[in-house]
Design a protein that fits this description.
The complex is a heterodimer of chains A (799) and B (353). With 799 residues, chain A is mostly beta strands. Helices cover 6% and strands 61% of the residues of chain A. The termini of chain B are far apart. The chains are: A mainly beta (799), B mainly beta (353). Chains A and B meet through α5, β25, β26, β28 and β42 of A and α1, β1, β2, β3 and α3 of B.
Chain lengths: 799, 353
Amino acid sequence: MNKAFLCIVLPLLLCGSIYAQSDYQLTGYVLSEESKECLIGAVVWSGDCWTVSNEYGYFSLKLKSGKHIVKCSFLGRQTAEASVSMDGNKSLDFTMSSVGSIDEAVLEAEYCPPLPPSYMGVLDIPKSYITNMPSVLGEPDLLKTLQKMPGVQGGMEGFSGMYVRGGGSEENLMLLDGVPIYNATHLLGLFSSFTPEAIKQVTFYKGFFPAKYGGRASSVLDVRTNEGSSQAVSGTVSVGLLDGRFYIEGPIWKDRTSFSLSLRGMNTLVVFPFAKAFGFPYYGYFYDVTGKLTHRFKNSDRLYLSFYHGRDRFDYKKSETKSFTYKDKNDRIKRGTNTDNEEYGLSWGNTMAAIRWNHTFGGALFSDLSASWTSYKMNENSLDGSTHVTDSTYGFTNTRLNSSRISDINVVWDFLYNPSSFHKINFGISGTMHSYSPERKMSQHIEKNGNAGTPAAQQGKVNFMTGGEYALYLEDDFNLGHKFSASVGVRATLFTTQGNNYFSFEPRVSMGYKIIPSLSVKASYSKMSQYAHMLASGTLSLPSDLWVPITKNIKPVLADQVSVGLFFSNAEDWQSSVEAYYKKEKNVLEYKDSKLVFTSSNDWEQDVEMGIGTSKGIELLVQKNKGAVTGSLSYTLSKTDRVFPDGTINAGKPFPFTYDRRHVIDIFANWKINDRVSLNGSWSFASGNMMTASWRTIAVIDTKGNADMVSYISGRNNYRLPPSHRLDLSVNLKKKKAHGERIWSFGLYNVYGAKNPNWVVNDHETRTGKDGEIYIYNYLSQRTFLTIMPSVNYTFNFR
Amino acid sequence: MKRFLNALVFVGVFTVCLCSCEIAIDLGDDGLGRVLLMNAQMSTADTTHTIYLATSEQTGFSSVKQAVISCYVNGTLVNVSDTIDDVEEIGYFAKQSVSVLHIKASFAPGDLVCIKASSGDLHCEAEVTVPAAPVILDAKVEKCVSDYDCSMGDYKFTIDIEDLKDEYNYYFLNVLDVSYVVVTKTDSHWYKAGYIMNRQDELPRFNTEGEPLLHSSGIGPSIGNSYNSYFNNKQNLFSDASFRDSRYNLKFYSTRGFSITPRTMSTGEEMISHNIAVIQIFNISKDEYLYQDCYQFDNSSESGTFLTNELVYPCNVTGGLGFVSINAATEYVLNVSSFLHDIDHFSHGIPIE
């Protein structure tokens, strides 16, 4: 297999290089005229030669010697054009102005639709989807927007869980400016960590994975943040029910250095007075900061500094003092006090910092060198104590500290080489040093007896592991004629941990064939491997979920995925696709039947079992991205199973995955009534999750031969919950002001109050049968708390 | 502005609270109907085996009024029983009882045993292969002298187990704590020399927490987090994962001290009190191991929380529900301590080395 693959790849690479030798290279960046920010995905073409700007706005076009008219198109912007005389390698930047008052019909005629890129199972999420999608409490959220896309299942309703094509929540690689974020949610998964205002471009890979990506088995979410305008300062202030956001961008050195900064924090002043009013001794908050600094050098080199820091904190503090009377040694009546203290604190969050340097070698070779550090940590502290004060003081204090941490240091060097206009070669190398510290525990016990305190009794435990992940990749994107395009790549990975080495060879192939100009067919195959597992606690994204590396006994997750699809594109107006996929994952983890699903890395290998996951499905997506009414319709028909041949889970028999939802339908529409008012609506329907239910009780016997009674379970995930559906609506009211634009957004989540299962548990009660005998009736208790939920949000965009 | 937002939050919270609800989902029919529930844990060490039989419905399980049980070994009928010896009430309600039947049969390793049960129009059967007996190479007991040992108990037991070759094996350990007094010199009319009195068979009080084979986490420092006190392996289940095809020295401690005293004694009489431990290692099938692992977790404090998976008990009864198993046992008897008692050393006795 591997040899055959190389036999295909190498000749293609050589062909491209030979073909390229008599041409000159036109390179440059595509920029926004207003902000001078780079534009990602702009099409640059001349005659039959074309290319697309990469994630840094860089393009490279191979042209023959002589004069050429080069054009550049980008959605929502006027087509730019330049005359170039190619008598050697040339550099040219396109600056593109927004549509403004230009008639859209004229623009459509000018726009050159790109040839079908060979990548499939890839979605570019328009930013307007994120900001307009109605959601819980009116907070725009990237991950909840993604849940509306075919092939993506949400976990608990209203939360930001993400299960892609039958994969687990830990199988998604979430990249912020190219750096992994380990726990990309706030408030136990209620919101994602990505601040909407800071987002520039979102690309989501679920079928085919370019060779530059690795380390996760199911999906890649590549989020790029704004570089910031190098011309003028602008920004946004936004206040919602739960949080407030502030975003600002602008030049530090005009045309050369720009910044973008977003701050988000929870409205603790608004939320917690209610908790306090009802006597709940809770306090908590979350915040995050996302920043980016971009410097453009004269020689068109670019330097980027990216930073993210997010933190959640939850506190519980209770102190109760009771007074009492007592007699002292002299029989005098005195008052004493007894104070009980209880405290609990939990904090968690990510921090990321990256430096990136873009450089072009000799016109044709673009390089992107980055070094980054990312860390996720969780701290838990608790205290309980009691103090008894009479003539003397007696008491004790127990304190416990528990922390978990994972941090990575990454160095990545990516290259892009354009040997010809029909040929693009990506290659690179990366090295990551992972540090896992799933558990660091410390406890202390102090007693106070009379006036003397006892020395503190301390105990502690530290669990620390490291892992090195090194990768090489090579990928060739090429066209053969005007109809066939392909991307053929390979990624080789070595992971070393605790004396064990794991090597993985991951071929990636995607091909597209244009049947007619608006219709193409594509097919792809990807192999992915994942070297870290998350010991998750359940349906919520708990901060205490532990990341652990693979070990001698626990192998990496290996995923093979085949997809095929039909893609229809009517210029920019309508786009639709139908994709079918089959995915097989080896070494997926589940907790064994009789093991505690909780967060201890102690001998965790013995509590889990490796199995096989299979997922297959058909996905339909229809999008309309232009006009007064825009929106999308998606439908997914899928089936996902797990089997653990070892027999420790479900007696070795296959069972459906928890999020095996057979049918999922999502409809989203945005109606721009006029420049001031727009309406948004989304309706979703999903078959119910699977859960394990007990219908009857049976007798069992222990090793001593004693009989007892337990719930009988016919198999894991043996019951499908009722389906969920809901309608969400919101309205945006915009008004131009002297220094910007203000937007009031009013929303209603779950308009018709559908009682969807948010939390379901097994329960039972005693009932009397027809024969008068009392029996135990087993049922499921469904808790619904996300019914009708109004929201309001105020935003001011200033400039 | 703040007052306005507060008012909005109040309206929001009020609306959500008003609309939140709890709904009971009726599971409907599980499709199994009324079937026989048969459970048995048989052993090569026994010749009479207990079979628990009941009819299982969605509303519970009830003892049967009449039943016939047949035992086939390697296809040959070896015994039939239609006597219901007892009815055991397991829960508080009527539909929580099982009938107890006994059947006589001897099993050897490799035998294919089939138990068939019939009650009225209900029939079920289970087929089990008898595993090979485990191998105890050696076992010894010694009085604890080191600081570590003494912190764990008074006596330290060491069992040298040899794993059965070329197969995955699952075991459980059982220890019988037997104490008795033997009369060695007497002039009583009531008993003669050699008479055994005061025999006590007690549940073992052993400390196995330090044995990693039985407690994967080891004893470890307890620092107060509930999930650190991993549920106790009360059934002493273990597998050969850590010593496959080789030997293992299993260690545990006794904190009890094995003391027993003669009830009465006259001048001139002499008696010896013996304290013995019967070490039993059972070789069980993987399904039985999983079954017992589920059971002991079901009985732990961690069971039933939302952080646990619902337990799927193995079932090997066709035509019904339940689980029938046969284990193979190996015993090793250890003399823990002996004391010579006379009228001057009535209660404590003189240790006999």
